[in-house]
Every structure is written in structure tokens, then in C-alpha cells.
Design goal:
alpha/beta; TIM Barrel; globular
Length: 249
């Protein structure tokens, strides 16, 4: 394995470990070679200084194997925002400011910050990252605009979707980097550091794989229906063009 990736979701039964940051620390101590990535830490739900400290520590515990992946927050579960007291409408703004704060904290210098959501003046954060200048910092790109913005920064991305969506988004990303005057070597290196998420089911036949996937999908919807969440998930699946079993519509 090149890397193991940890997500963050709360209350909906998606994850047993819930918190990718604390679980990444455990994996750092239990492994020696594999990279440990977060895909993603939900930026809207965290304080940036705390996350900067935690990830810097994990970077040391893993001796530079950390890949820090962030997203603004869940796209489909309003319970997560509400429970943490975060307005879903300002999640993107919080994400941008959080990223700015984390990079400042990882600079090894005193940090004075005055933003929309956080204001503080602190001495140099300790520990400074093991990786110099800091661990890879990736951003989830759930739209064309997000991909273009990340490309203009010249930084790698995380993406999920169909093969067609991923190919189109990657082409958009490359084009935006060229428009931003990055050379081909930088573009190639940035693409090489980017990651795509695909669900893969291994079975003896395609038919058996489809049966396993369908059963899992139906059980997931049934569980979430019991939590009062199914209708929101069904709406999102429909919008994505996914066929939903009639029993769960």
C-alpha cells in the first residue's frame, strides 16, 4: 500500500473511528512505511491552531509520512454542522481562513492573526513540523471552481467521482495551472501528488460485485432512514444520477 486514508464523519454510522486526527496518531505508531492521509478533515468543525498542533505532532510520530487533506465539511449531512454549532453557509469561508492559519502556524515563526472567525497573537507553535517546510496540504475539490482555485495555488487536490468526472476535473486543473504560468514540471509534480477516491469491490464476477454493492447501499439507506436521515441522502443520490431502490424513495 502507498497510503491509508482516513475520513471524518459523525453520527451517521459511516465511520467507527470518527476522528481521523487521533486515529492517524495511532496508525503512526503502529506502522513504519505507509503514508497516512486524511481525506478529509472537515475544516469547518475544528479550531485551526489545535489542528495545526495535532498534525505537526503526527508528522513527527510518523517521521514525515503524513498527508494532510482538508475539506470544508460534509456535503450531505447537516447534523454534523448543527451538532458542532457551525453555520453550514459559512463553512467555505471558515475553510479558507483555517488553511491560512495552519500555514502560518507551520511557518516556525510568531503568529499574529486577525480574521473573520479567529483572532490571536501567539509565539512560535511547537512542535514545528517534521516535514520541511510542512506536510503536504491537500484540498478536496468538489466543483470545477474549487479545482481551478486550487490549481492557481499550485497545490495538489483530492477528488471523488466517476471516471468521467475525475478525468474532466484533472484536465481543468492542468489547464488552470498552465494559465497561472506554472511550468510543465511543476504541473506534473502537482498532479503526481494528487489523489482520486474510487469505491472498489472485489468479487469473483461483476454480477457478484454488483450484488455486494447493492446490498451494502440498501443497508446504508435503511440505517440512515432509522436515524431520520434517509430522505436527504436519497435526494443527493438522485441528484448524482444514482438509481435508488424504490423501497428507499
Amino acid at each position: 500500500m502507498d497510503a491509508v486514508w482516513l475520513a471524518e464523519h459523525h453520527f451517521d454510522g459511516t465511520l467507527a473511528y470518527v476522528d481521523p486526527v487521533s486515529f492517524a496518531a495511532a496508525l503512526a505508531m503502529a506502522t513504519k512505511r505507509v503514508k497516512i492521509g486524511t481525506a478529509v478533515i472537515q475544516a469547518a468543525l475544528h479550531h485551526p491552531i489545535r489542528v495545526a498542533e495535532q498534525l505537526s505532532l503526527i508528522d513527527h510520530l510518523s517521521e514525515g509520512r503524513l498527508i494532510a487533506g482538508f475539506g470544508k465539511g460534509t456535503m450531505y449531512n447537516p447534523y454534523e454542522y448543527a451538532a458542532f454549532g457551525v453555520d453550514q453557509e459559512i463553512a467555505a469561508e471558515r475553510f479558507d481562513e483555517m488553511e491560512e492559519v495552519i500555514l502560518k502556524c507551520w511557518s516556525g515563526e510568531r503568529v499574529a492573526h486577525k480574521g473573520k472567525f479567529w483572532e490571536f497573537d501567539i509565539p512560535m507553535m511547537r512542535p514545528v513540523p517534521y516535514t520541511k517546510p510542512h506536510p503536504p496540504l491537500l484540498r478536496a475539490t468538489g466543483s470545477e471552481d474549487a479545482a481551478v482555485a486550487q490549481a492557481r495555488r499550485g497545490r495538489p487536490f483530492l477528488i471523488a467521482g466517476t471516471n468521467e468526472v475525475i478525468a474532466k476535473r484533472a484536465a481543468t486543473f492542468r489547464a488552470a495551472m498552465r494559465e497561472a504560468k506554472f511550468d510543465e514540471a511543476k504541473i506534473a509534480a502537482t498532479m503526481d501528488a494528487s489523489w482520486a477516491w474510487k469505491n472498489v469491490i472485489i468479487a469473483e464476477t461483476d454480477r457478484r460485485a454488483e450484488e455486494i454493492a447493492t446490498d451494502s447501499f440498501q443497508q446504508t439507506l435503511a440505517y440512515r432512514e432509522g436515524l431520520g436521515m434517509a430522505s436527504r441522502f436519497v435526494d443527493n443520490y438522485k441528484a448524482a444520477g444514482v438509481t435508488v431502490p424504490p423501497a428507499y424513495v
